[in-house]
Fold these 3 entries.
Entry 1:
Amino acid sequence: MRQYRTLLGYEMKKICCRRSTWITIAVLVLAFLVSVTLTWNMSYTHILQAQEDDGTGQEENEGWYDTYAQRKARERKNGIYWSGRKIDDALLMDIFKGYEDTKDKIGTVGNIKDIEHFTKELERFELLESTLDAIAGTEGILPQSYYMQESGRLTEEKLYQRRDAVVEEHQASYKLTKDECSYWQQKEKSLTKPFTYQYADGFYQMISMNGVYMVALFSSFLLAVVVSRIFAEEHQRRLDQIILCSRFGREKLYFVKIVAGSLFAFFATSIMAGVVMAVTFICYGTEGFSAVIQLIAGWYSYPLTVGQILLIMLGICVISALLTSIFIMVVSEKFRSSMAGMVIAVLTVGAARIIVIPREFRLLSQVWNFFPMNLLKIDQGFLDVRLVSVFGVKMTIWQFAPILYLILGIILVLLGKRCYSRYQVQGR
């Protein structure tokens, strides 16, 4: 055991003492911070009316300006105002009356500052509008149906009936089997209705492609640069002949290198996740851990909160990083080149990010969604309603993925061990 600790300490020291390791971490963190800063300071123009040319050759626009940060601050305040309310007839009536009253006030004032004030008052209903659209699956349709005329106003009964129809339509698009449909019907019964509205923009950001997905993407690039050198460096520096004929060169050293690469993957992913979570929650707030996923994906029937989904995603992200690290190390050992491991890893991540296989090709698209970069897309992989049956036990894609990743990791370790042990140094 002492020998393992000594070798592991030496391998970790080699990784941490490379300039490329810290430069890559710094570049990725800086790129994320810059992108957030640019987005947060983006300005928006609210134009009420355009004035005619006053002889200068330019038109003057009458309105006001604000930034993304200011909009989000108001949105957070408005969201917290409505948090805790049941999405029922009482809430829908409050929305209807409040929207109509504010619209009437805007129509009776001519002062721009008053119009600006009442226009911002209307923002109080925007979060609820998008939530109702998400529940009913009718983006951009509901406002006309319940704001314009009271006779066609949305009611609790209409809202949840529409949601039931959307759930059936969504599941039908996946061509689920009878057993799968029965599984989701049972899950649907376990949902508590009416849903409770909660502001949870920080958690929405973290489970979107701006959060955990970004952590996985950055971690993959970091691992491609760093762990691809763990095995390949021996061959590139022509130290393999000395190492492989040493006492621990073919047995203990292999597993030590695998553990070192895996430990670095764990720490690198943790660092990236910590940075992304800290920035996201500072910007968007930490409210809403217990907000149900149906507030943004009404067609999903599993009883999960966005906080639970975030924890599950972080776990999958860490396990997938370990698998990615092992994959890169085995590839770089097979081809005796760090560049090979780096290129294959980047191409795999790029392909998974760009290519989408239609759900009509059930088996192929389901397998494709198990790739970490697809699984961590909340709308593509994570909420895929197709199930995996193992010895009669039905599991969702996010339940089965960690098991699959661990099995694939063990297989890759054994294949890499075979390749490493049988390698013979040839004349150069």
Entry 2:
Amino acid sequence: MRRFLYCKIKKEITMEERLDLKSLTMEEWKSVLLQWGEKSFRAEQIFSWLHGKRVKSVDEMTNISKSLREKMRTEGSMTELREADRLESELDGTCKFLFELEDSQVIESVLMKYHHGNSVCISSQVGCRMGCKFCASTLGGLVRNLKASEMLEQIYEIERITGENVSNVVVMGTGEPMDNYENLIKFIRILSAKEGKNISVRNITVSTCGVVEGMLRLAEENLPLTLALSLHAPNDEVRKQLLPVANKYKLEDVLAACDTYYEKTSRRITYEYSMVQGVNDSVECAKELAEKLRGKNCHVNLIPVNPIKERTFLKSRTEAIQNFKNILEKNRINVTIRREMGSDIDAACGQLRRSYTVKKEGQ
């Protein structure tokens, strides 16, 4: 009788199938370790190595067994970013970074230095599909969402490069955060975990152009972060000229979602208002906006728009911006004019990535 010897051939795990080690929350790590036959307490150790000490290799995890490190190496991957370009402002020290991802796509991040600490503005997507008319980020459309690890690594890599500590994070770079909701929430929970970077959720700001269902979901997450709405107009008619998303979501519904967020979190809403000459900077617009926001616990941030060559919009004149501010203040609306940072390095969102991409395509 002939005997046949059968050998189990272990299928090699592709990069796409590997665990994204830096995107796992603490609870997800515990689940993975139990599946691997490991003790769940290892989750805190591994998480601390990845997000507290922010190591770049599993081999640096000296209190983790060799066999477990080998498991992580063969079944997981460690997200890394490569610095492709950097611009530093001679005016205020603002640093704009261009990072290359593992699939050769590029994203922007900005380090801003204030007296109260350092802030990093990160991207949440490669490109953007929202189509805001004055923004370079949306030129070329959406390529893909960023993983939680790719969002985190923007902060970690800036700290490694500069030696500076980051105490505040704003998700206001390229992309619409609510369009990448699941990864956004994982990013926030990992970033604020005490075993990791441990940034207070109150020091995190998330911006949206007004994706109502995402705003309402965020209100239920029990995360007391600051919500910033890209408002940019006092009514639907003007808003549609600047933000295509206004064709889907009425301003009335967007503002109602902001009210719900405040009721659920007790966190004051920030209304971002880019000042565009001859479009939304009139006395009438200021009075209408004051009427819309009267009685709300909010802050209006007036932003002199940074012109981009692909669009015809111009920055409002200084006098118009100051008049707008005065009208809001007379109506007891809390308002400031955003300090222009990095104006000498084209620090407006999407500009560096756009110029890099165009140059690369032309080669």
Entry 3:
Amino acid sequence: MAKINENFEKLPGSYLFAEISRRTEAYQQAHPEAKLIKLGIGDVTQPLVPAVVAAMHEAVDEQASAAGFKGYGPYEGYDFLREAIAEHDFAARGVDIAPDEIFVSDGAKSDCGNIGDIFARENRVAVCDPVYPVYVDSNAIEGRAGEYDVDAEAWTDITYMPTTAENGFCPALPDAAADLIYLCSPNNPTGTALTAEQLKRWVDYANDNDAIILFDAAYERFITEEGLPHTIYEIPGAKTCAIEFRSFSKTAGFTGMRCGYTVIPHELVRQGQSLNALWMRRQSTKFNGASYIIQKGAAAIYTPEGAAQVRAIIDFYLRNARIIKEGLEAAGLTVYGAVNSPYVWCRTPEGMGSWDFFNKLLEEANVITTPGAGFGPAGEGYIRLTAFGEAEATREAVERIKAIL
């Protein structure tokens, strides 16, 4: 008899954003006249920039001739994109990352979920709390999380590191030993960013304990404050302890196109094994590479025209973030994020539960948010709002929220 992976049975309920969609759809069906505004799931609304569209059109036209046609591409991505990434995302910041340390994929979510394939099941996992659900759920599926404690709303074998206003949104080094440490900066969901000094403590800890930092930098292009690291490899020692994930989804509007990349330096070795080589073996077994057409579009954001156009889109979303932050603060709410991130992290009023406040905003203001409890125990008492909506809709959502408060 074929047996299933029993770890799936341990997962609590549905995936966070699937549950939000379910509740939203149920409300909309019961109130078809309601005009909902979505500030919950972080999907973008602005179209692809002209440079990207032109590059993809060119790539499509190439497929019409024998000379230009592309079949299977390199598992790790085409050289033209990997070289552009190495030059503009790293060398431009004084960081030496070689093209063959870069693996192009269909997005950071996939890579964050799949990276566990190259690590043993017995590795001990530590995550920031609140946390992007994929980090936790993917390890639960692979058997590293233990059992789910319904009362605590946490997994028994995962170390949750509070990342809250009380500690300046910088988690303390874990008391229990950790082998795989997930860090995200700018952080999803809190919208806050780690300093170089804060990251250096983590890099030193990882090197001292032969641990691996899994560093999610999907939102680094939203950083506006001077001095904040855009990549963990700006920190001395990071190449021997860190894997970095990047995405074009929010920065260049590729949520539907699907493209991102992972960096694994050659210096990153454990038990005599190159993690770069292990990931290449994994990818060549389970992944056939991102589309040539999509990679041509991604490469276009590194041209002068594409970079300027993408910067304008990012600035548009950051203006939305400021509108949300300033509007909610004017309503008397405590708000974080929005400065170096498209996310706004808002404390619920008067100790209200996060799902209760989600329901209140949905039913009374017709605004969809994301309840903080869905991001882990420390997320309770908060909601996350995203800046990816249209400007007018964002302003209207803020006014609706202010009106019911």
